Amino acid sequence: RTRFVYLYMPSTLMSPPTNRVVRLVVDPGYTTVSARTDIVPDIPFKHAANAVGGAGAHSGGRLRFGPEGFLYITTGDNHQPTLPQDLTRLGGKVLRVDRDGRPAPDNHTPTGGDPRIYTYGHRNVQDITFRPGTGQPFVAEHGPNHTDEVTSLVAGGNGGWDPQQR
Fold first, then answer.
1. Is 142 noted as a catalytic residue in this protein?
2. According to the model, what pLDDT value does residue 133 have?
3. Which residue is catalytic, options 47, 58, 108, 142?
4. Could you say which residues of the chain have pLDDT below 70?
5. pLDDT 10s digits, 111-122
6. Rg of the chain's alpha carbons, rounded to an integer?
7. Cα torsion through 21, 72, 83, 138, rounded to 10
């Protein structure tokens, strides 16, 4: 039986560096992996420190399969104020894809956005869970210095994080 493992990892060997989700095949004894496939290779990575945090900060990074079988990927804003509202880039988002990285068919991404985006406008999503019985997704997200939040997700929805408007 083939066993797959999905990992969320930075790749500093790329230029510019990116975060990525990879799928690996694990042998039955759990001693070796093979057949690496990068299924989402283009998640923004903060490669240099700035006034609000160090390199690698605010990358999000929780992976979880939802009850409908799609993979949810949480990403962070990398301390970049325009990233959460930019629908062409994957930072500050919750992505929903199949096991090969293709967009889920009913993400309802706003026009012009990357179709892998399920929700956008997030600061730094750290966890995702699903309400038993309904499958409704909820995320836990870091706020600025305080005001962390739990947010109920709706396909195509905007989490509202837009530091340019503050």
1. no
2. 96
3. 58
4. 1-2, 12, 14, 166
5. 999 999 999 999
6. 16
7. -150
